[in-house]
Design goal:
By secondary structure, the protein is α/β, with parallel strands linked by helices. The chain is about 40% helix and about 15% strand. Helix 3 crosses helix 4.
Length: about 400
């Protein structure tokens, strides 16, 4: 009999935050096509957070208690969490908040494996629940671990979670190295990268894509997709624009995205555009659903991601699936995704000159877009899901 998987992830889409944690849902809902699966996506709570929304309207938006997404039940229990304080307790509080739901699922025969995403606090909470309920736990490392292991308070909790888990998956080898630095047995570590939906992301004619967006066909176009937060580095690309415009006066930079659970830098970015007098060269397109992204991606010449930290950035493969070369910073798993100079360029983080030079050269290069698309086609979700399903079945046997 196939095992019942319960995904534990505090970063997961809901009707009020439809863009949060899409990469978790994309991966695990494909697993749900082969194995029975439920999702527990806990929501942080403390008594006065509704008052904070009067000052910060987007702060911790509430989520429905239960909802159904694509036939899969998603539960949103609350867990006590004070913003900006006592983060070392979030893992314990998350486990306590989720325990009643996990207990009910076990009584119903719907819990055989807990599959957590991010080592802390989710993975830590999962391993406590696994101990209390006597079920195995898997943890997928997704990128925050790199920062957390540098924190003297959180590092022991990250390492404890990884040590207690039955299996640890990482979306990149760079994250596997983080686990090894915690002394985790290499035999229980496995790299399973994210994939791309090549049916959803596919090239369109650049001319028609530009016409639809009102972009002159002769322009040079850059694009970045992501949450409008500091980490994603939109501000670094905006700061590079004055120098890039000297070489390409008709350059346009498309910014696609909106607020995310990490925060909202929309106003800071718009102010930076104004300060640099770039209003005619930088366009904010807002958040765009994944099934509509092929158009703006196809309108561009180069995808840029000047990010400070990533695990495995799905957006890089999504851009490549539309035939776009990529310029990305050398952090996390970016070098593993942009694995060849035929796909783009990797530059040192926070090196302004290197970023400008890489973008300038990429705009001048005649890229083989069909080859870039073929690389994406070799990195679909299918092979990733086959491996995951096999691992879950082996764990339950």
């Amino acid at each position: 009999m196939d095992p019942h998987i319960v995904v534990l992830s505090s970063l997961f889409p809901n009707r009020l935050q439809p863009m949060a944690g899409l990469f978790v849902r994309e991966r695990m809902f494909r697993v749900a096509q082969q194995l029975p699966l439920s999702v527990v996506a806990p929501v942080p709570w403390f008594p006065f957070q509704s008052l904070m929304r009067l000052v910060r309207p987007g702060f911790r938006p509430p989520a429905p208690g239960t909802e159904t997404q694509d036939g899969t039940t998603v539960f949103h229990p609350l867990f006590f969490s004070i913003p900006g304080a006592f983060k070392s307790m979030d893992g314990l509080f998350m486990a306590i908040g989720c325990l009643p739901r996990f207990w009910r699922l076990k009584r119903l025969g719907r819990l055989d494996i807990i599959d957590a995403h991010f080592a802390y606090p989710d993975g830590y909470a999962a391993t406590l629940l696994g101990k209390w309920l006597n079920v195995p736990v898997t943890i997928t490392m997704r990128g925050t671990e790199t920062r957390h292991v540098k924190d003297p308070v959180l590092r022991p909790r990250v390492c404890a979670a990884l040590s207690r888990a039955s299996r640890v998956f990482s979306v990149s080898d760079s994250l596997r190295q983080v686990a090894l630095s915690c002394g985790i047995d290499p035999s229980k570590l496995q790299v399973i990268g994210n994939g791309v939906d090549i049916a959803k992301f596919s090239p369109q004619a650049q001319s028609s894509a530009r016409d639809s967006l009102g972009i002159p066909r002769q322009s040079k176009v850059l694009v970045t997709v992501g949450g409008l937060v500091e980490r994603k580095g939109f501000h670094r690309v905006i700061a590079a624009m004055p120098e890039l415009l000297k070489k390409y006066p008709n350059l346009t930079y498309l910014i696609i995205g909106g607020p995310s659970p990490e925060g909202d830098w929309t106003q800071q970015l718009k102010q930076l555009v104004s300060d640099h007098q770039l209003d005619s060269s930088v366009r904010f397109l807002g958040p765009i659903p994944a099934d509509k992204l092929s158009q703006p991606l196809s309108a561009a010449d180069v995808f840029v991601l000047s990010t400070r930290n990533e695990g495995w950035a799905n957006v890089l493969l999504e851009a490549m699936a539309c035939g776009l070369p990529v310029v990305a910073t050398d952090v996390g798993g970016n070098r593993e995704v942009v694995s060849s100079t035929a796909l783009g360029a990797i530059v040192p983080f926070d090196d302004d000159d290197a970023l400008v030079n890489a973008i300038t050269q990429s705009l001048a290069t005649g890229w083989d877009r069909a080859a870039i698309r073929a690389y994406a086609e070799a990195n679909t979700w299918d092979s990733r899901v086959v491996t995951l399903v096999k691992e879950f079945r082996n764990l339950s046997s």
